[in-house]
């Protein structure tokens, strides 16, 4: 940017008491009202945090070094920043704000750091996992809208760990994707596949996030679960997971993903299911009904909750493209 064309307000003699208002002032020249608002609130809370904690230079440098280490260990198959967001509860909070769910619809959960775009397309009934050590299971699902109508042609992205609690991308010598697939619901909103029963496992704790958990005296374990992501034009994007009820980490998930409505139980296959789906009698079966929310339903609910939440904070806002900005009119 040409400095001669920048309209920079005069600033000097900045102190603890006036640094915040001046930083907001110089950041408030963007033509994007949402960017201006987000930066205003970010600076306000960051500066208040420093003042309230009397943050020391040594502590701030330690924080910068920590964030640098988080970035350095991140790669295309390991996103340590997502992990950090997860263990701070921020991932779940943002998802809950951006993808509100009406009653009786499927609740969201965290994406996690190991989603991959290289999953293979599979037909109904295919085996997603080739782990011979895992306990086989059959997963039978339906997808409906909030009015109980089946939703066909939904793209479903599914992924889980192997029986040792590792995702395929965690193996340096892997030959291709495993424990993950993409399929679409049929005309009746059904989809089904074969997998292995999920197992509990620790999130990667050999990096800076793991060291932080250790300092906080927190364990890194997640309860057994299987990830699902749903996409279809006209419907709100849903990222969720199903968690095994009774898992020892059900109430202490390291990334806060468990919700009562997402807890599931497996039951043994009877003769009818075994014959219809070509599985052994007594093998584990998971049945679940997913409920998607339309874009309009989600948008209306998001707007309603945004207005109320910010009004409760005493902030007068208006919505621009569904996002709040200060209402100065």
TrEMBL record:
GO terms for biological process: catechol-containing compound metabolic process. The keyword Metal-binding applies. Keywords: Dioxygenase, Iron, Metal-binding, Oxidoreductase. GO terms for molecular function: catechol 1,2-dioxygenase activity; ferric iron binding. The keyword Oxidoreductase applies. CDD domains: 1_2-HQD (cd03461). It comes from the Eukaryota. Residues 112-271 form the Intradiol ring-cleavage dioxygenases domain. Pfam families: Dioxygenase_C, Dioxygenase_N. InterPro entries: 1_2-HQD/HQD, Catechol_dOase_N, Intradiol_dOase_C, Intradiol_dOase_core, Intradiol_RC_Dioxygenase. Residues 32-105 form the Catechol dioxygenase N-terminal domain. Its cofactor is Fe(3+). Belongs to the intradiol ring-cleavage dioxygenase family. PANTHER family: DIOXYGENASE, PUTATIVE (AFU_ORTHOLOGUE AFUA_2G02910)-RELATED, INTRADIOL RING-CLEAVAGE DIOXYGENASES DOMAIN-CONTAINING PROTEIN-RELATED. This is Catechol dioxygenase.
């Amino acid at each position: 940017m040409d400095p001669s064309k920048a309209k920079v307000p005069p600033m000097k003699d900045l102190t603890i008491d006036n640094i915040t208002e001046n930083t907001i002032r110089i950041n408030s020249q963007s033509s994007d009202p949402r960017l201006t608002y987000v930066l205003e609130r970010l600076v306000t809370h960051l500066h208040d945090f420093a003042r309230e904690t009397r943050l020391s230079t040594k502590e701030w440098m330690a924080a910068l070094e920590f964030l640098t280490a988080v970035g350095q260990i991140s790669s295309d198959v390991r996103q340590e920043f997502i992990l950090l967001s997860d263990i701070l509860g921020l991932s779940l909070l943002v998802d809950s704000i951006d993808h509100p769910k009406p009653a009786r619809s499927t609740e969201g959960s965290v994406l996690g750091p190991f989603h991959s775009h290289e999953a293979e397309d599979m037909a109904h009934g295919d085996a997603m996992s080739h782990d011979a050590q895992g306990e086989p299971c059959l997963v039978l699902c339906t997808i409906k809208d909030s009015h109980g109508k089946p939703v066909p042609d939904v793209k479903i992205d599914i992924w889980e760990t192997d029986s040792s609690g590792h995702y395929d991308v965690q193996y340096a010598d892997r030959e291709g994707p495993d424990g993950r697939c993409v399929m679409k619901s049929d005309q009746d909103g059904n989809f089904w596949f074969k997998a292995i029963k999920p197992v509990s496992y620790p999130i990667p704790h050999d990096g800076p996030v793991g060291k932080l958990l250790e300092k906080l005296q927190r364990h890194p374990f997640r309860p057994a679960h299987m990830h699902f992501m749903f996409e279809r034009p006209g419907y709100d994007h849903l990222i969720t997971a199903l968690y095994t009820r009774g898992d020892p980490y059900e109430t202490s998930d390291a990334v806060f993903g468990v919700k009562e409505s997402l807890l599931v139980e497996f039951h043994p296959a009877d003769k009818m299911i075994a014959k219809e789906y070509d599985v052994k009698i007594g093998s584990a079966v998971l049945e679940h009904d997913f409920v998607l929310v339309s874009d309009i339903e989600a948008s209306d609910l998001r707007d309603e909750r945004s207005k109320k939440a910010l009004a409760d904070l005493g902030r007068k806002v208006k919505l621009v493209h569904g996002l709040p900005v200060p209402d100065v009119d």
